[in-house]
Amino acid sequence: MARESVRLIPPKDIDRNPENPRLIFREDELRALEESIAEQGILVPLTVYENAAGFVILDGERRWRCALKLNLPTVPAIVQPEPDPVTNIMMMFAIHKARSDWDPLPTALKLGKLEEILTERHGRAPKENELAAAASLSRGEIRRYRNILALPKKYKTMLLKELELPRAKQVLTVDHILESTRAADALWQRDLVDDDEHAALIDALVRKFRAKIIASTVDPRLLVRMARAVEREELEFKVARRVTLRLIRDDAYTIKKAFADSVERIDFEHGTEQLSTRTIGRLEEHLERNYELGDSLRESLIELRKLIGRILSNARS
Q: Which of 27, 99, 211, 261 has the greatest number of C-beta atoms within 10 Å?
């Protein structure tokens, strides 16, 4: 960019862009940037456009906020022509594409705004590939953001409040709620929970993520596996429903424990059954051949008989 294209503008004459997907500005991050600007100045000019009311930011809102706090008389800025509303949002997303620190929920909310404007302009909802091109996003990203937009309002509000915290203090993420919702949906589709229990299960999983009872973001996928096991009739419906209801009612009960008490137990029992069947066949063959029983095998069979007795006794109790 040519040097003469950079102008010095008083920060009080500049306004934030209402279409900026970045809604959260954390104090600790702003403080670090403020210290850098106080020491070295603004090294990268802001990008703005000019309208009848003054200048509006296209890129550099954090630098602008710091300049206001530092009472800087002017900031360097590159002035571009005023974009129309759609182009303005599209430019915000194009800038977003190069940034990795913008939060997904505010970006999803702004994507919804872009979709509304495009629908109004063209008289129809944009196709997935059209919206992806307009927002400089992949189709996979578009689907992810639409899933975020589809979350109940209470969860989006909860996440926005979480984003206001310093990063080190944040616990709940978009992925926690998305994974919890997908898991509850899978169980609901197999009639393992009704509508009220579906909502209660999501709430319970979110609480457990917040309390760190559930440690891994992907743990809810074990519930999807449990739902599939029911569908394939590999797991009894009543067993899956029992552990699901316990997940709702017992705040200390984890997904991994529910999986261990259902699918994992069935898998283990199935493997034990196969091993038992092979052992029975081997022992029957031993009888047919009328082999003499060696001391080592005798001791092993005695131990096996004791173990089988304990297993059967535990099952009866």
A: 261
